[in-house]
Fold this sequence. Notes:
Pfam families: GST_N_3. One of its GO terms (molecular function) is chloride channel activity. The protein is built from 10 helices and 2 strands; from the N terminus they run H-H-E-E-H-H-H-H-H-H-H-H. The protein is mostly helical. Strands 1-2 form a two-stranded antiparallel sheet. The longest helix has 21 residues. The protein is globular and about 55 Å long. It starts with 14 loop residues before the first helix and ends in a 17-residue tail after the last helix. 38% of the residues are buried.
Amino acid sequence: xxxxxxxxxxxxxCPLTHQVRxxxxxxxxxxxxxxxxxxxxxxxxxxxxxxxxxxxxxxxxNPDEAxxxxxxxxxxxxxxxxFPNPPIxxxxxxxxxxxSNIFQxxxxxxxxxxxxxxxxxxxxxxxxLEELNSFLLGSDSSFMESDSLRFSDCSLLPxxxxxxxxxxELKGLEIPGKFEGVWDYIxxxxxxxxxxxxxxxxxxxxxxxxxxxxxxxxxxxxERKL
Length: 226
């Protein structure tokens, strides 16, 4: 059950949901996707998932037993263990650090309502993008850890998509063209069916992140190693 968009039928532009959907597609899992409005927690939903968090994975193990997970990292770990092929576990600590905190800096900027603070918040986000760019320019692979997508990419690519679309449209911040490593990485991701088929549209991204209080938590799941 992912976070629903405003129309309550589309999947919202939540990077944590996007991450889980990419992992499922990489592993050829076809889950039943049921977008859920977290502002309208029904009794039935809370009976399934008492925390009320999304995304939530419900795996019906047998007619009388279901596994319920509402932590994106635990969902990823479970899918990796239950469906080991292809393996996507992240093993490169340097790659994990290189992509860390970008989402936190993005959220701080996008949720800020004081224009006077925007320049400093933009600088903080650009600094993290520059660190990522340096790592990517020094890498021989197309993605963070190899020439195939891994968990680190399933986590980072959705967040860079939000930076590319929402930060530009809502805060006037573009990823600098001189960050060639970041742009090459983004373009490599866009060529992957796994990424393209799970992407929210630019319009959904703008709709979701233009809300005064976006409902995606300020956490950096990418820093947590799978």
